[in-house]
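Section: Multi-chain targets

For targets with more than one molecule, the full set of components is provided together so that the structure can be written out for the assembly as a whole rather than chain by chain. Components appear in the order listed by the source. The example entry contains two components.
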Amino acid sequence: MLRRPDPARLITAIGRFASRERDGRDERTAAWLGAALGVSFTVAFVTGLISHFMQHPPGWAVWPSRPVGLYRLTQGAHVIGGLATIPLLLAKLWTVYPRLWQWPPVRSAGHALERALVFPLVGGALFQLVTGLFNIAYFYPFPFFFTTAHYWTAYIVYGALVVHVANEWAKVRGLRPGHGSADARPTGPSRRGFLATVAGACGLVGLTTVGETFTPLGGLALLSPRRPGVGPQRLPVNKTAAAAGVRPDPAWRLAVTGDVARELSLSLADLRAMPQHAARLPIACVEGWSAAGTWAGVRLRDVLHAAGVHAGARVRVESLEAGGRYRASEVDPPHWRDELTLLALDLNGEPLSPDHGYPCRLIAPDRPGVLQTKWIARLVVHGS
Amino acid sequence: MRVGRGRLIAYGLGAALIGVGGAGLLRDAAETDPVGWLVWVAGAALVHDLLVVPAVLGVALLTGRLPTSYRRPVRVSLVLAASVSAVALPMVLGLGRRAGDPSRLPQAYGVHLAVVLALIGLAGAVATAFRAIRAGRGRSRRPR
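Its structure, encoded as tokens over all components, is:
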């Protein structure tokens, strides 16, 4: 006769089986990995917030236009750091996995709350890394909009992490030399070897992808979803003219309207007749890749001054694109006054290709790629 | 157990962040699809806890039977190989490729992953051979 399985014995047996493998399964290894994860999730959270608020600036904040490559750096750290965190998180979960199968499952109200918070921490952390990876691979099997879900989940994961760190702080403190037992450094062949292996896995992931944004290592970017130098005019493209539904129009004119002294309507020849300037600036994509190009065209501030704008004006740059989340972008004074901010007509010595925004696109320093509006139709000046 | 002030502040901060995230998810429900979101968060945890770790445990128990000098390089190679494969998988599958945009996922990811895995395997084999030779020397030097 079959007896109903006793959950206590079953769970205990699974836990015992799960902890049969000893490699990487001690508290200090967990604490070291936890400390590293604390750093990497903090970097991801801060750089993610920077990216979010650059795209949705609150009224009181104005982003600087310098240093030129700041966003390139923060978003590269966000994405490549996130990829390198995948082995780190898996290692940490491996280290603490037997604790999933503890009996009794909860010992007190406090313990119940602590365990309940592990769910958003673990599920949420895995969610962030998996959806982030899928997003840079342009693979969307999920029912939510990636950016919004990834953004709000970040607060939940980081909040659960803050509580978790507060609970485990004593263990992390014990890692410092002179604290806790004499066994504070990651010594012992097993622990040191395990941690070195995890570090190697994180490093290998980083090494085979970082070249998509750090061009000197471009040759090693074997597994990155983008490659600097690959694309029309040697620059990658995120949205093509065909995808945006934009066709070259010989009758194209740039309209400058809104809060201006005199409205302008400029043809491509008018723009070419104005003083031309060149700038070497990167397209720095929210997806982590970046690549620099040599752009040439008219300074945005020259066009705005010709129309007569006040110093604190903001400019909405609107595309020929009929719809889409990024068909228009706002340019604040620090950016439009910057001499590097161009209404670009040329890229790498040739007129812009349709996929790079022909006849005219915005290119500005320290600005996410999605805000470097292509196929510009109108500049609408409005108050601050 | 007395709870210190620092810890209480951390609890408050953590709870506030979780509250902000949860409220935002619900406020933007049209974009976040809270039910679908929950399925993916819980699904990620379940797939990890019930499939990924048991599979790793199985491999760990299998490689645990190897002689000590082979075990470590084999395990290190497997960890490195699994890590790069997991990260490369969406690129190798190439489901995000779009006609008309050849700069998106432009590389031969299957070939590239194979090259990286081969290099890991080679390094693992060299390390194993090195360890075996060293272990053999140690044994022959031992007095009989």
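Chain B has three domains: 1-30, 33-65, 68-144.
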